[in-house]
């Protein structure tokens, strides 16, 4: 069970073997710790000491985010004790052939899923440009197979992503002012939802990696760096189109989200100066001079910190547009849709049975572990059909 707590000013307290979400004298929810796998806290949420001890005793992955979905950090369960598995993970970082093979199959899975989604868009929306982009992405697969370095693999992945997002709007009934992928800050509703869903997905993949007993830091497609969950980012790639991008299309095309569900953050207008009375600007209102900034002022959501991305940290993109964020009532609809998506079942060939998407994420992390331990020769990403 995954629980999301969004009520600002709420406190999580322990009562017996359970946790209560309280605000004032009211009880908003009861959380049964034996059912709880992950707890996501948005904004101003307090946890009492006894509740925190209960969370840690039950190995509940607890994620802290700003009110609008920006990742801050986490209270993680006890580290895996399998030092031999971790040692093997790090030893394989020095095996360039192994790293290249693994990076290739990860990117091949991502490119294949993007191409499949674009072909669906071509057929359902009668958009030939989506089909053309899908063909170009498929052409990259042959070049990917011949790549001789991980840097080349990353180049093909980047090229595929650029082709994909260039025509992604073709899958939307209304493009909602989307023209390309803009991360920090998102400047249109579609980018805002994509970023939020990627954050949710990252947290589920991180949890699956920990369930598998793996160290989340050593990866092969995403280079290792201080504080970068490279393995989590690697295993996310195949699920981006399967979960986040298809769900984004559904949210807008089914009118679950509409233009009025978003706020465009325009800077405050300058106060007019009367010709006779000069008004001195309030210097304390300048956010640069504040010691801290409240959660309400952090409007963009994305993967945890730019440091986790393949490229070095970049300044916010200058687009001439203002940041966009979801209204709180719409935010809940996105969470509900994400959880419903993850409980949807499909036939999962490696297990030869029906699995939910949420269970498949855990299964894939376990499959990756078998590759690391040498039980399986090749990692097989999940592919859209």
Provide key terms for this protein.
385 residues, 14% strand, Ribosomal Protein L15, Chain: K, domain 2, four-stranded mixed sheet, Four Helix Bundle (Hemerythrin (Met), subunit A)
Describe the secondary structure blueprint for this structure.
Elements: E1 2-5, E2 11-15, E3 18-23, E4 26-32, E5 38-42, E6 46-47, H1 49-57, E7 61-65, E8 71-75, H2 83-92, H3 96-125, H4 128-145, H5 150-167, H6 189-211, H7 230-253, E9 262-264, E10 324-326, H8 328-342, E11 345-348, E12 353-356, H9 357-373
Helix pairs in contact: 3-4, 3-5, 3-7, 4-5, 6-7, 6-9, 7-8
Task: Explain what you see.
The protein is of the alpha/beta class. Helix content is 43%, strand content 14%. It has nine helices and twelve strands. The chain has helices at residues 49-57, 83-92, 96-125, 128-145, 150-167, 189-211, 230-253, 328-342, 357-373, and strands at 2-5, 11-15, 18-23, 26-32, 38-42, 46-47, 61-65, 71-75, 262-264, 324-326, 345-348, 353-356. The longest helix has 30 residues, at 96-125. It starts with a strand and ends in a 12-residue tail after the last helix. Mean pLDDT is 82; it is low at 271-319.
The largest β sheet comes out as: 4 strands, mixed
Question: Helix content range of the residues, please?
Answer: 40-55%
Our estimate of the beta-strand percent is 5-15%
Radius of gyration, whole Å: 22 Å
Highest CATH level, the class of the largest domain: Mainly Alpha
Give the beta-strand count.
Answer: 12
Secondary structural class: alpha/beta
Output the helix-strand order: EEEEEEHEEHHHHHHEEHEEH
Mean pLDDT: 82
